[in-house]
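Hey,
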Amino acid sequence: MKNIKKFDLKGKTVIIRCDLNVPIKDGVITNDFRIQKSLETIKYAISKEAKVIILSHLGRIKSEEDLAKYDLEPVSIRLSELLGKKVLFAGETRGRHTKALVRNLKEGEVLLLQNTRYEDLNGNKESGNDMELAKYWANLGDIYIDDAFGAAHRAHASNYGIAKLLPSGCGLLMEKEIKMLSKVVKTPESPYIVIFGGSKVSDKITLTEELVKKADYLLISGAMAFTFLKAAGFNIGDSLYEKDYIDYCVELLSEYSDKIILPIDVVVADDMHNPSDIQTKFINEIPDGYIGLDIGPATIKVFKQYLDDAKTIFWNGPAGYFENPEFASGTEKLANIITKTKATTIAGGGDTAAALSTMGYAGKFSHISTGGGASMEYLEGKKLPALEVLNEKNS
């Protein structure tokens, strides 16, 4: 796949599709991880004296009320701060104002267009890959660079559509995502440890079946651990589990009993959101009426024994209900252990990235994927439309 460094950018108008889909509350960005990850490609284009136009989606637009909620202007302000230069902002996805801004754009300047999904309000033109819309955007530039790995599993007008119409390549973040995630499924160095967390077994069936064959050990944490513990015959109190996947977990535990490592103790509480009683219990002591919300200290010690000697570590899904500080200890302690190893350390999944970024570990892993669904589908071996079109253009 041709990357941005293979193009002569000087004086050219370069459209860069970024993934600036960040959480915003009351107009304030609460986590700028994805913006930070987009900087390298943008800075490279600026350094080569390109005129830069940035496209990105933000949230889902289903009603008029969503327009204000998912306005990209706060992102343009934060991007300006991080680049150390003003980023021009078009408050529209297309129109006279946009064309005037593009026409007057100078070398080294950056223009961010409004949320591409504004075009979904009337007819799903962005998400439906409306080629008239793609042609409009393509006509604004000379070269198209896709750096939005987080949207690579979607065939939208702003990625798949434009790439069909312009000389196209990938950005530096997109290239790194593919290189690092490929290590997880194609060339992991042994000992290879996979850590799974998060809430659902059902979300990870294909990924589990793909990785359990390649990994030396699979460490199970998070809410999904309770489906496995239930399948193993333990009383799990009121802990969340997936009844329909008990048989699946029984089969997996039977086939890979030497590889799958379950928690031996957990942090439980009488209520998930407003707990009045929090205890640490071994898995054969979980009381009725209590819900498991984190892994315990004994489990962390067991997991550490596997992680210390690892050469490759892949982590998907937090170890507990990290949004509540009372139940974030397992996730934070695992992150601390992992970053002290000599392994290639890769984390994937939206919740995992959010947890690690919030806890200050974003720069301490070999790679933290910006893609949630995209990284999962890539690791499952599925074809991602935005990657496929770039490969077609450069074959």
